[in-house]
C-alpha cells in the first residue's frame, strides 16, 4: 500500500484524490481548527500533526508520497507580491522543504497559483534540486477537468533522483534548464506544450506498493 503524508491539508482535497488512486493517507498537517474537524470526520483515526512549523519530522512516520499546496497569499496576484520570503505565509514553503529533507519520500506533489511561475518557482525547484529531487511541472486549469471556470494552478511533481526507469527520464529531460541555481537536475518545461501533459500521471505508475528505506 502506498502511504501518503498530507501537508497544508485544508479539508482534504489532495487526500480525496490520492484515496481515489487506492493510496492511504498516513497523517495530516493542518492548523485550522475547522479544517481539522472536517479531516477528523472524513478520516477518523488518521493523526493530524497540526502546525507544520512545530512538527519534529524525525518522529513522523515516513511516507512514499508527500503532498501539499503551500500558502499562496504572497504569490497570488490578489496579494502584495512578496513572494516566497522569510516571515510571509508563502515562506512556509521552507517548512515543506524541511519535511522533504527529513522524510525522503519517493514522490513529492506541490500545488500553487499560476503566479508562482514568476514569484518563486525558481526557489521551489532549486530547493528540490538541492534535496536530490528532479521535477517537472505544468499549469492546469479547473476547466481542464470539467469545472465551469479556469482557476489555473501550477502542479509540480518531483521524484528522488534515480528512482524512475531510464525511458521516462530521457523523455522528461528534453526541456531547457533555467539558470537559477548552478547545475541543478531540475528541468524547465513549457507549461503550454500539451505533449508534456500525460507525463505527470505516468510518474505515478511506478508506485504499486509501499517503498521501504525512505
Structure description:
The chain has 6 helices and 6 strands; from the N terminus they run E-H-E-H-E-H-E-H-E-E-H-H. By secondary structure, the protein is an alpha/beta fold. The protein has one domain: Vaccinia Virus protein VP39 (Rossmann fold, 3-Layer(aba) Sandwich). The radius of gyration is 17 Å and the shape is globular. The C terminus is likely disordered.
Task: Summarize the helices and strands and which ones pair or pack.
Layout: E1 3-7, H1 13-20, E2 24-29, H2 33-42, E3 65-68, H3 93-103, E4 107-113, H4 121-130, E5 133-140, E6 153-160, H5 166-172, H6 197-202
Parallel strand pairs: 1-2, 1-3, 3-4
Antiparallel strand pairs: 4-6, 5-6
Distance between the termini: 15 Å
Counted by DSSP, the helix tally is 6
Helix/strand order, N-terminal first = EHEHEHEHEEHH
CATH superfamily: Vaccinia Virus protein VP39
Radius of gyration: 17 Å
Number of strands: 6
Uncertain parts: 165-201, 207-214
Portion of residues within helices: 10-25%
Q: What's the number of domains?
A: 1
Sheet with the most strands: spatial strand order: 2-1-3-4-6-5
Strand content: 15-25%
In round numbers, the mean pLDDT is 81
| CATH architecture term | 3-Layer(aba) Sandwich
Largest sheet: 6 strands, mixed
| Oligomer designation | single chain
The coarse overall form would be: globular
Q: What is the CATH T-level topology?
A: Rossmann fold
Which class best fits the helix and strand makeup? alpha/beta
CATH secondary-structure class: Alpha Beta
Amino acid at each position: 500500500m502506498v502511504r501518503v503524508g498530507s501537508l497544508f491539508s485544508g479539508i482534504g482535497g489532495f487526500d480525496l484524490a490520492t484515496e481515489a488512486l487506492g493510496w492511504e493517507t498516513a497523517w495530516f498537517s493542518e492548523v485550522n481548527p475547522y479544517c481539522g474537524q472536517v479531516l477528523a470526520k472524513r478520516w477518523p483515526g488518521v493523526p493530524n500533526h497540526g502546525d507544520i512549523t512545530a512538527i519534529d519530522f524525525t518522529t513522523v512516520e515516513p511516507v512514499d508520497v508527500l503532498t501539499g499546496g503551500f500558502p499562496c497569499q504572497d504569490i497570488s496576484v490578489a496579494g502584495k507580491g512578496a513572494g516566497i520570503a522569510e516571515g510571509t505565509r508563502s515562506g512556509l514553503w521552507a517548512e515543506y522543504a524541511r519535511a522533504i529533507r527529513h522524510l525522503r519520500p519517493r514522490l513529492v506533489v506541490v500545488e500553487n497559483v499560476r503566479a508562482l511561475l514568476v514569484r518563486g518557482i525558481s526557489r521551489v525547484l532549486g530547493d528540490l534540486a538541492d534535496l536530490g529531487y528532479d521535477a517537472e511541472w505544468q499549469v492546469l486549469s479547473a476547466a481542464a477537468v470539467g469545472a465551469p471556470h479556469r482557476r489555473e494552478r501550477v502542479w509540480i511533481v518531483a521524484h528522488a533522483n534515480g528512482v524512475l526507469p531510464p525511458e521516462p527520464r530521457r523523455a522528461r529531460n528534453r526541456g531547457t534548464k533555467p539558470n537559477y541555481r548552478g547545475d541543478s537536475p531540475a528541468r524547465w518545461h513549457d507549461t503550454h506544450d500539451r505533449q508534456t501533459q500525460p507525463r505527470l500521471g505516468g510518474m505515478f505508475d511506478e508506485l504499486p506498493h509501499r517503498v521501504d528505506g525512505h
